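Subject: Interface between my chains keeps coming out wrong

I've been trying for a while to get a sensible model of this assembly. When I model each chain on its own everything looks fine, but I need the whole thing in one frame so I can look at the contacts. Pasting all components below, labels as-is. Any help appreciated, I'm running out of ideas.
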Amino acid sequence: MKCFVTGGAGFIGSHLVDRLLNEKHEVTVFDDMSSGKEEFIAHHFNNPNFNFIKEDLINKTQVEKEIKDHDVVFHIAANPDVRSGADNPSIAEKDIQATYNLLDAMRMQNIKKIVFSSSSVIYGEMCRWNHAWIQPFRSRNQCLQPWSQLNNGCDKNRRTCQKRTWS
Ligand SMILES: NC(=O)c1ccc[n+]([C@@H]2O[C@H](COP(=O)([O-])OP(=O)(O)OC[C@H]3O[C@@H](n4cnc5c(N)ncnc54)[C@H](O)[C@@H]3O)[C@@H](O)[C@H]2O)c1
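Reply #2:
Try treating it as a single job with all components included. I did that and got this:
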């Protein structure tokens, strides 16, 4: 399979890349190196099945160009500093726009498979108590922290695009 891995130079993404290449898949890593590390992927640079694109998912034209002819997309790229998102909404906005660009590029190139790991923070925290202050969060998304909205936004993006494109 030809796999397109966003955030493939990051902590989680690079382990996925190792596994995919071990299983003889072709892999394109699309990563802007904002928090990725070259040392996580350097051991693949001479592998003919490995291709590295240093680029930001915000650059939609480039995403559309590079994603062409892939069979599946693994979307791991994100700003991992989710807690800062509470004070700085532009972090969440960028990640949601990046996910939107990726999904739209997939639609344009007729790529139908995406693996999106999201994050456990979208579920909020287990709570046995029923305090009144928790209720507004419960009735919305079950997200108890503001930064939970970030991954939840990306999840919603994906579900909406799935309905529009493939149902
Ligand atoms: N590390 C964990 O324990 C953990 C647990 C659950 C969920 N997650 C989630 O998994 C995702 C990845 O986590 P990680 O720990 O591997 O983080 P990471 O910072 O190591 O990896 C993220 C990668 O995405 C790249 N990236 C970020 N924005 C980009 C953009 N706009 N365009 C292209 N590349 C971009 C970064 O350069 C980096 O290589 C995050 O959403 C994180 O919240 C992480």
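Reply #3:
Confirming on my end. The chain has one domain: 2-166.
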